[in-house]
Amino acid sequence: AQDSCSHQCGELLGTCSCQVTCQSLGTCCPDYDEFCLQISPYSGSLMGGKDFLLENTSLNTSVLMCRFKQEIITSGYVDKDGKAHCISPLLYETGFIPFEVSTDDGLTFPYSGTWLSVHHSKVSDGEKCTLVNETKWQYYGTSNIDGNLTLTWTQWSLAASHINIEVWGYQETGDSYSENWFAEWIYLYTLARETPNTGTFSFIPEPAKANYNTWDFGILRITPSTYSDGQSNIPSVWSSAHALAWHLGEDFRNDPTAWATAKCIEWDRKEEKLPNFMEEIIDCPCTLAQARADTGRFHTDYGCNVEEGSVCTYHPGAVHCVRAIQASPQYAAGQQCCYDSTGTQILTHDSTGGSTPDRGHDWGSPPFMKPPRIPGFSHWLYDVISFYYCCLWSDNCHFYMKNRHSSDCRTYRPPRAASAFGDPHFLTFDGLNFTFKGQGEYTLVESDLTSLRVQGRTQQAYFPNGTEAQVTGLSAVAMQENNSDVIEVRYSEDSNLEVLLNQKVISFSEQSWMDLEGLFLHSTADQNITVMFSSGSGVEIRGNGGFLTLTVLLPEKFMNHTQGLFGVMNGDTEDEYTFKNKTTMPVHASPQQLFEFGANWAVENGTSLFTYDTEILLNNFFYGEKHNVSFLPVFFPHEDPADPLMKEMVSLCDTDPFCRFDVLTTRSLQVGNFTRLSHQNHKQLVENLEPVISCGWLGHPTNGRKDGTNYLMGSAIHFICNQGYELIGSEERICQVTGTWSGYTPNC
């Protein structure tokens, strides 16, 4: 009898497969599609309430139960066309969440799939209801702000003729940084009942009743009015999470400044009792160039983005901010770094536009679930609502800046970069470059520090006329660190760029950012893929004319902990060509000898991270040799003056040896041009990551002022005393190569 995929998705069975690769291999059990669920849409906000369709599955039942993480049950239903649906639940985490479906009232759950839970501010605006003029909602009751508030939503997103609008509040209770610290969203009251589902609602807000008006951070939920108040995990449309100024009590409306000042002072006192997270967060990069190059550890803060016109509401004077991707190890705190138009870091000591670190990392941090790791909302509670108290609703920003002052960049150390591109040219962490055109699967870098492994597959290149060239290029890269998810980026057989997560092709059609196990994954609109591992190491991959271009960024802690084709990262090029058995080959080895070095780093089936999901891949790379010994590439392309391509090649490549090599061996100017650009990008990246010396912030003397806010090597700061005061000490101090300021502290 044939095996069944009931309860078995992801398993390889005796007679057939329930693994995701079975589809392209044609080895699936007959009922694979029925039990291993494909869903649409595949993602939604962690707040839940989103209706998604189970594709391929026809269930002859009216009662469906959907169970997430084996514990949270939501009700599903079968629509009039016989299609099955589930409703996503409220979750306190982001990432892929396993779910199962039961058709026998919860006795068995044979069907399974995964749902992608997304940070609430990362889901598209169309999925939320809109607070029209959000600023007005969040400042309502402060000077001169009153009148109507309007809420709009897409009316077909809820299948109901009448809706209710509810107010929910968020709180974290218990002892800070202990096991009994809990996060919860709580239904407070219903703002409007049995309202026609027209897609718009306007009202004049009343101060909330006494037991609710202490809630100052929350959210609105719209639900079909057939459900009871505050019922959990039902079809819902949520607003953005926001400061609830509009519902605060009479005491706030009568004197918002006094109310906010009292809250600010209370927050400041609480802060003093909490542990100091500032000592363990990563220092900021010194320059904007470093911040944008260190993609393994820092990512654009979408609230201030130079690529979107630098609309920096909270950071006046800044053109771009980045956030540290990983939360700090013990307190799960976040770092933010902002830069001005000269590329210099802005500090809060000098300007309110300076960057402010966060007690709660905005993106949350694994394992989520408990404060201060809840995505978005912990951050609101510790770092945003307090900003409203101290800086926006009252004039007490000095309290906020005292607890959230910028870190400078004195301890920042840039990562090192290695790249591979074209018919593969390798630029190592220590700056050596070589060409290795083996055909097979090879270890590009591995590290004993975090069990990081990055592997590359090379396949034969083609001439423009379709025949095979005697060179290869990177066609797939696979990677993992410790026990993280495995990510593979590859060219599919029809030359599209594909990203695989644990052997399954994933789509970025709904989300460009994913929080995964041990890593974050990001794809830009033009398919630049970035993988950010929890160690701070980063891998960037982009498709370039049929070959992949790869860059690996490793923080300084990986020094003396790497091996593979990218060499031993230690600042010394002499030992770059180190074999698996730790013997080395001289730096001036011939291309033929380098071919031997490359072949030594072929992976084995037992350690391969690649997915072999087609007959071609199985035959060529799984059953075949990991390094094709019979493939001998061109080692020295001949430059023939009579070659018609020579003239165009020289004007395109100039003196770039990689570009010239690739034009001659592939007979393609396009391939040569991609190689030239990749080489240029790598050189620019290495330049942007050059270490910069900082001497740290200097204040102005009492009864005086200072001129200058750049504290990097070579910068000068001038000091001037107010009228009637005389300067003792240095009028000018210069940041020296030693990282110290020249001269003496000035006094007036």
Automatic annotation (TrEMBL):
Principal cellular location given in the protein's record: membrane
One matching Pfam family: Somatomedin_B
A cellular component annotation (GO) from this entry: membrane
UniProt KW keywords: Disulfide bond, Membrane, Sushi, Transmembrane, Transmembrane helix
Domain Sushi, chain residue ranges per copy: 693-748
Keyword Disulfide bond included in the entry's annotation: yes
Highest rank taxon of the organism: Eukaryota
Residue ranges of domain AMOP in the record: 256-404
Domain SMB, first and last residues per copy: 1-40
Localization per Swiss-Prot or TrEMBL: Membrane
Domain VWFD: 416-609
Family annotation (InterPro entries): AMOP_dom, C8-3_MUC4, Epithelial_Barrier/Signaling, Somatomedin_B-like_dom_sf, Somatomedin_B_dom, Sushi/SCR/CCP_sf, Sushi_SCR_CCP_dom, VWF_type-D
Disulfide topology: C721-C748
CDD domains: CCP
Name of this chain's protein: SUSD2 protein
Organism: Penelope pileata
Gene name of the record: Susd2
